[in-house]
Structures are given as C-alpha cells and as structure tokens.
Predict the structure.
Amino acid sequence: EIVQRIQGGAFAAPESDMYPDYVDYNTHDRETSGLFKEQYEPKRRFTPSKYEKHKIAVIAAGLKSGRLKTRLQLADEKSKANDPEKSFVAAATSIWNDDDDSESLEKYRGAPILSAPKLDLPGHTESYRPPDEYLNIEDDEASNHQKTHETLRALGAYHPIVAERFERCLDLFLCPRGLKRRLNIDPDSLVPKLPSPIDLKPFPNSLSRSFQGHEAPILALSCSPDGQFLASVDDMAFLKIWEVGTARCVRTISISSQLGWLSERTDLASDIAWNPEQSHHIIAVAIKSGLIFVDASTARTEDDVALTHTLLQPPENNDEEESTEIAFWHSVKNVQDLLNIRLSAATRSIAWHAKGDYIVSTSPTASPSRQVIIHRLSRKVSQAPLKKSSASDSIQTARFHPDKPFLFVATKTTIKVFHLIQQTLVKVLPHTGCKWITDMDLHSSGDHVVIGGCDKKLVWLDLDLGSKPYKLLKYHEKALRSTRFHSRYPLLASAADDGHIFILHATVYSDLLKNPLIVPVHRFLRAHPPSSKNNHLGVLGLTFHPTQPWLFSAGADGIIHLYHNLL
C-alpha cells in the first residue's frame, strides 16, 4: 500500500495532508516597532499645562464663591423653585432672619472703601457744667446748653439725641465694610533650601599662581587638550604659550610682525582656540583680517609633528583670483607652519568642532550671508551655511553641538539652532532676556545653553523646557564678558567688567523630570580690578582646565590667574 501511494504521487502516510491550511506565522499579528519613534518623551510633556491650571483655578474659585454650581445643586434648586409651598416658606422665614447671621454677612462682604465715621469728642459746648465764657453764646446750637448744672444727675433729657443716634446708625449702615485677612507666612519658608558648598566640592576656591608677560589687555585664553599648556592672545596680537605647571612662557609669537602689520596698532586679535584633537597641535587665532593657524610646537611624537605640518600646508590652488569669494587660504611668506585665512571682515569669535577638523568663525560687521563661515582644515575649504541672515540683527558668536550636527548661532537678542546636514532651522529661542548677547557656551550634554549679556544678566536656557529661560541671574555690576562650562565637572563660571568672577555648581541630571541644580559656591572679588588705565575693563576671558577643577582668568591688566581647589 505504501509503494502504491508513492507511485501514485501521494504521501506514504495516509493521515498526512498534502494541502494543509496556510497559517501566516510572521505577519498575521501586527506589532508596532519603536525604531522610527522618539526613544524618550520630551520633557515638556511631563510638565502640567499652564492653560489647564488656569481653567481649573477659575472653576475652583467659582465653586468656592458660589458663582458656579454642580449639577446636583442645580437640580436641587430647580426642584425647590417648582415647589410653591417651599418657596413661600423660604420667603417668609427670610423676613425674620437676624441681620447678624453669618450667611447674610457673607453677601455684604467686600473690599473696604471708606472707614466708618467717628463721633467728635465732646467740647465745652456740650458740657453740663461749661465755663462762664460759654454761657452767653447766642447761636442756636448752644441755646440748650446755656444753663449750668452742679451734677450730671440734675441734667434733663438731651432733646436731639434721637436724631444724632439715627444719623450715626445710618452712617454705620451705609458705610461699606470689609475683612482684613493677614497672612502668617514664615520668611524662612520662602527661601529655597540649597546644599552646603562644602558638600559640592571640588571647585576652584583659591589663587594658585599668576602668569605675567603681556603688555596689553589679554582678550582670550585656551588650554591644550592634555592640560599641560595654555595659550593667550592680547590686544596687540602677541600669542604666548605657557606651561601650566610652572607658569613659564614657553613661546612668544608676534602675529602682527609675522603678517607685516604695525606693532603700535590695537584691536588686532579678538579670540583664540586650541584644537581639541590631541594629535593636532594647532592654535587658531581670530584676527582683524580673518583667521590664522599656528603650530603650537608641543608635539612629542614624530607622527604628531608630521600630521600637524601637513595640516598647516597651503592648498595646491593658491591663486587669489581663482579662489572662492568667501575665504582665501594662503601661507605667509618666509614663515613656516603658519596658515592664514583671509576674510572680508574682522573675525570676532571662533570655535572648534569636537573632532578638530571644522572651525566656525563669526564676523558681525560682514554682510548678512557671510557673518558665519565654517572652515575645514583638512581640505582647506570654507563655506557660509547661512544664506538668509537678517541684516538688522548681527551675529555675535556661534558654537557646535558636541554630538549632533547642530550649529548654535547667537545674535544680539536671540539664539538659533541650525541642522547642518539638512540645511534647516531647527529651533529659535527669541526670549533670552538679554538686550545684547556677549558670550555663549554649551553644556557637554548639548541640551543646555548659558549666555551672558551687556545688561549684567546670566541666562540659563533649557532646550527641553521651551523657549523661555530656565534661570535668569543678575549678580554682576557691569556687562558680562565670558561664561564657561567645565567639560567634566559640574561647574559654571562667569566674569564681567566689574572684575569679579563667580563660580557656580551646575548639575544636569539625566532624569528628564529633574531640573538642573544651580548653586553659587565661590566668588573672586576684584580678581582683575578695572582702572582708567585699561578703559575700566575687568575680566575679559575665562577657560577651565580640561581634566582638573581649575580655572584660568585673563584681564585687561595683562595678567593671567590660575585658581585651584586648595581649601
């Protein structure tokens, strides 16, 4: 039988089904995938709606005052209104209610408008035993008091007492009344409870050493990625490289003499930034004609020396006429390892990308489409990503996002976030609270921005909460010059023209329901005192040590201070 079934083209077992029902094991149960959805809910969805809070408060106030009523109360009143017997009894009993009843008093409560009039104190005219000079008065008011009595008991009835008492009662009845409610609030309960600064260590709290050697105001500072060297640039374009451990000046470069400028001029440089990549020993300096890259000469291995030398080589097409209109890359004659980028306007600020290949420069005096330019060091190319910038609101500074392809651009009053790959505007923060933004820095998470302004304000912006500032601090006496986050420690520093430096503990939690903790922990008063010699300028630059809780500060007095956590 089995052989016959096989020869006939059937299965060997008779109970086997050649055409069973198809069961779709893979697609008959649909499952939603979270690959294309947001992994975390935005922080604003966890905060309660202010509109709903306002509506609930209005409804609760209406229920409390009796203006609004529930459905049960409305049904009860409707049933009472339809019953003529109950309405007649209620009207009859309201006639004999006492005026001092608490329910009747609630209806007449209101804001105090006028105080109740007080009776005048009795004078000699109303006395039952007036002096002799008041006995011969001829006016009508004193006609009833021209008699004297030895005792009060001998005095007869006072005729106008009924009219006076009626007028007094009438005044009290017509005078509006109000209740004064005094609030018993403990002042200590209004002050937020902050942790002790001792529990928030480490943070810089004492002066360790000073770096002296500049003859002009120091405009900016930048520390090497390993933290062993410090670079500074002053107003006369003198670049100095310091050794952090010994405060010794390792190298001095006169950028003005290298480029053939007059050494007596000022405002030649404005900003400095050390390349964050440890194998790239390059320092970028913002100058009046654009941007310049300098070899720091701190490389220790031959590979780093060769890589740095290769990056500072000019492009092959070094013809100015054939170069792009945005920027002109060229080398300086008779100077090795010095690369210059010529721009159409003076550069105000610069900032490296975290990988060390891209750098962004801002020029507020340039045309609107060329105020922000991104340069790529490996390919020697430049591009202007913002083609539709506003001419009325010039761009002050720009920063790269530490992880994402976002560019934060700060104008005078607003902050804009652009997506560099998609070439779109992601977010606008119009309500910064500053009239003129002077500096901006990003937290290492990329979700928090801190800005300083000429109106003495330090503004903390949380991108997850919305466009309004999370905290607005105003403790400086003059315009802020620099604000910096630490890359590893929860520290924030701010400096201003008043010469003061403030250190704040700034913890950002990974939990989206927790707001950042901002606690002032230390201050350095008059670290760089302003004077008429330096145009009443104080602290001009700040930077943190990349691996230690140390702070470098530079001022208009030409001195650099290093603050340690010694105490």
Residues 141-145 have pLDDT under 50 and may be disordered. Residues 542 and 553 are 5 Å apart (CA to CA). Residues 50-65 form the longest helix (16 residues).
